[in-house]
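Appendix B. Chain record.
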Amino acid sequence: MKYFSTNNPNHKVSLSEAVIKGLAPDNGLYMPERIPVLPKELIEKFSQMSFQEIGYAVIGALFSEDLSESQIRELVDHTLTFDAPLVEVEEDVYSLELFHGPTLAFKDFGARFCSKLMSMLVEKSSKTLRVLVATSGDTGSAVANGFLGVEGVEVIILFPKGKVSPLQEKQFTTLGQNIIALEVDGVFDDCQTLVKQAFLDADLNKKLLLTSANSINIARWIPQCLYYFYAYSRLLKNGKKVVFAVPSGNFGNLGAGILAERMGLPVDHFVAATNVNKIVPDYLQGAGFQPQPSIQTVSNSMDVGNPSNFPRLGSLYRGDENVFREKVKGYFYDDEETVQAIQKVQLQGYTLDPHGAVGYLGLKEFRNEYPGYVGVFLETAHPGKFRDVVEEALGAKLILPERLAAFLEGEKKVLELGKSFEEFKEFLEGLD
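Structure tokens predicted for this chain:
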């Protein structure tokens, strides 16, 4: 299958080029030229299949033209080594827990798939593959741990100084080996801009083999559709319509859900739930797409003022804004509302992280406006990753999972960087 740029449908490349390049030369995102539709009968059988078996079917439909059956199984088996359970929080309100992987965040799914696929594609290359990653929190930790020790690959993570939770920071700044952490004196959007500029710099790309493991890369983005299929297969629908509420920052996760829907998953609606960085909810209410400087919040992984994956959302709906706005509803919440949601749901015996709290609020607001739906909100990270916020909200100490607490013992090792591309380019040129 070929992959086209969202900025130019006539620019098409192979799977290998789309994954290794990450970003098209015209600054567009790569998309599959065809979205396969799974038979309804197969999707109905998913309820009797394991997570891995569902993965073989979905990834097979997407990649069978480029990968062998054994490679597809190897990819899926490497990716799906942990569960994504549905937990009923209230009647017809479910949490999809995506934090049971190595770094306790949903990005473990995409990072593991991406690292495995990249290692397959560069196996015979003599050049070191350098993975550039901008992170507002969980992407950095998931990618760093997913690529740790992978031969022939070096990961450079850019993160905004003072704007990532201390525990998230520890998960990617203490690893060493083939992981380099750059602390940028700016916000997430500055980090993201530096990465994009590097991909578009002709001189750099002649000297270095650069790629991305942010959700702009199809190898990070596409596998996230798997847990939508899995959640739907385990959901007690009782004849009701289904809505997924997705806490959103860069909008790759929501895009993956829409990809699943375009592949035949019978999802009736999606909720784009954000913090006060509400560019997409504003768009869904009829405004134009207007990027803004990002605002710092307690749900820091969603502090994105110019969501990179927005062009993918439009592409998935074939550029039809009316269909886009009909299928996706947008809501946003401030820090006070987020904290209140954490407190309220704790009274029901369930602990939310700040991002899951935003997803929960979006789902509740949607169901108030449109009764009769069974809903799933995505709990994208373990609450312990945002311990300061959650403990302050609840007035109680959290017990951290052992593997999360272990990161706190590591020594932080970072290089400081300004916002200028010239400084970043000089750093990259000095790697060889």
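Further analysis of this model is presented in Appendix C.
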